[in-house]
Amino acid sequence: MKVPFAIKAERIAKHYRLGTNPNVNRTLRDVIVDSVGRLGQLARGNGNSNAGSVTDLWALEDISFEIQPGEVVGIVGRNGAGKSTLLKVLARITEPTRGRVEIFGRVGSLLEVGTGFHPELSGRENIFLNGSILGMSRKEIERKFDEIVAFAELERFIDTPVKRYSSGMYVRLAFAVAAHLEPEILLVDEVLAVGDAAFQKKCLGKMSDVARHGRTVIFVSHNTAAMLNLCDRGILIDRGRIVADAPIEPVIQQYLKGLRTVTPWDLSTFEDRQGKGRVRFTRVRFEDDQGNPVEHGVSGKPLVIALDYHAESSQPLPNCRASVTFFDGLGQVLFNCSSELVIQDPITLKPEGTLRCLIPRLPLSQNQYLLTLFLEVNREVEDWILNAVELDVIDGDFYGTGRLYPDGWRGKGVLVPHQWLTQ
């Protein structure tokens, strides 16, 4: 029997109430203290009381889509956009406030570290428990058991209670169980970021295998390169609503464009950044090698990225490392310019000033590129802004031949100095 769809969501909404409710878990002492406080306020002529505050939050609003069997769909969006909430609704972990979800097939989910595991049970027992929850017989689970353990690389610890596992061990076992117990639908959240690089690569390979066998995969991640390799379709969520549902490339381009600053030169009020924040970038400027301001880069010409910064303390900043990483429009790394790679001695910076990164010959063809900024002081990350600004690059005579890059190859990334020899 051919099913009409794997997942169908109709006008899903999820509502939460944030804050404190003064009527929950109140004791007699709380009532007496509040009453005395209100009497005091009335005596002073102030009728307001601190009765707690509750804020309504719609994590999801009017979400509708249909996913066909065998589709591999990537869901992207900023932190707090509602991606994980949506996956929890699809996995039947959370009930929607409104709307409905129809699912054809068994669902395997990897949403949070250790979700679905009983901490007192061993890894072996949890494998059988999860298989039973998916509706598999004991023989089916036994047939897959050795493959699961080998993939998770936990042979020595398979009879150890999972409460003694590290977060990495949890993830390895959880993914192995979710991917190998043959669910028709696999839901995977950003939890893979907990594992090491080798395991992440292994997981992505397994997810590709799952997709090739005609099973449905829904993948939430900030790893746009993995999304491009794995997914055919993308769904962009912003503030609980779907703003794009299309092939994966244009969806990722729209997502990355939305991450950029509204005013790309001024970073002083930019909030979407990581690090301790005791030292921060405040402004970005592009210059030529003579210090003149420029609006764009030119292929083969010098480009200076001037980064103004400011520290909270008036003390010098020891052992500093700065970098600018260039990404293409799909979020894939092209190259990284790091002070640590080209300066042998540690850098000490003033509490306030400007760092300049000079690229003697810009090796990029005509397109728009994204720059990520990074600053570390004494081996502690102080400021890290992903996709901070956009750089427009126009064609120049990179090879000194009087010819520009062919139209069909523009925007394909890095230009490499090279020679051709004939005999």
What does this protein structure show overall?
The chain has 423 residues and is α/β, with parallel strands linked by helices. The protein has two domains: 57-259, P-loop containing nucleotide triphosphate hydrolases (Rossmann fold, 3-Layer(aba) Sandwich), CATH 3.40.50.300; 279-409, Coagulation Factor XIII, Chain A, domain 1. The chain has nine helices and 18 strands. It has helices at residues 28-43, 83-90, 123-133, 138-152, 167-180, 197-212, 224-230, 248-259, 339-342; strands spanning 7-19, 54-67, 72-76, 98-103, 107-110, 185-188, 216-220, 233-238, 241-247, 279-287, 297-298, 303-311, 317-327, 333-338, 347-349, 352-359, 367-377, 380-394. Strands 5-6-7-3-8-9 form a six-stranded mixed beta sheet, with helices on both faces. Strand 6, helix 6 (197-212) and strand 7 (216-220) form a beta-alpha-beta unit. The longest helix is centred in the first third of the chain and has 16 residues, at 28-43.
